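Exercise: predict the fold of this chain.
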Amino acid sequence: MSGDEALVLLVSVLLGPLAWGLWFWRLSGLDRTGRRRPVMERLLAVLAACAAGLLAVLLTLAAHDVRDSFAYICLYLLLGSAWLRMSERCLPWFGLSVRDDLVERGNDVVLPALAGFLGAMTLAYAGANIGDGPGWWVVVVCAGLASLAVLLAWAALECFASVAEQVTVERDRAAGWRLGGFLLACGAIAGRAVAGDWISADATLRDFVFRAWPLLMLLVAALLVEFAARPRPDRLRTSFAGLGALPACAYLALAASAIAAEGWPA
């Protein structure tokens, strides 16, 4: 492991496991009665699932020198942990907060949305690890490109539909599941768009634009669903099955179809 890789490993430990530990410790201090402990445990389970999925990708689909090295597996796993921690700090930009909504206000409706977001960032980072490349900086560039695409898609959805407000203010459980499914589907498409061997920055950007276009189709579908799901005087609460679970599954099916049509990196 080179000097710059050792530095990345150190920074990843600080921004990853240590930062997550401090974050959970602070949140636990806010929950003095222990009533939010089951929700915090479910959030911890989501993070564990993200780590397990990323580890599976690193062990099977990453570059050969990564798959065959315990040190590199640890490096990219820890870097992924730091990536998720830094991504979580973007949530307030979209009107969501683990501390405010989940812990202090006890709004369980945000949990599916948070899980979808963390899963999306994991898929974006995992896709950047698929294929051969010259070093860790390639993973950072590709993961940044995929993550930015997810954030932009969410920003566009919020601009026209204000889904986060339905989740945090209206506490619409169906909206929480729709948002979680949408974000997870975006992460799958964006992660696939950056997967593959690194050739050059220009080639990566060109391939990404060519492969990530289903994000636009997904966004249009989500906007149509959100307009149809808006509360009306005769329907103050939306159906969880019809306007929650079903759209979320449809978003994921659309993403799976787009990935299947594109094919897997050679």
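Check your answer against the key: The chain has a mean pLDDT of 90.
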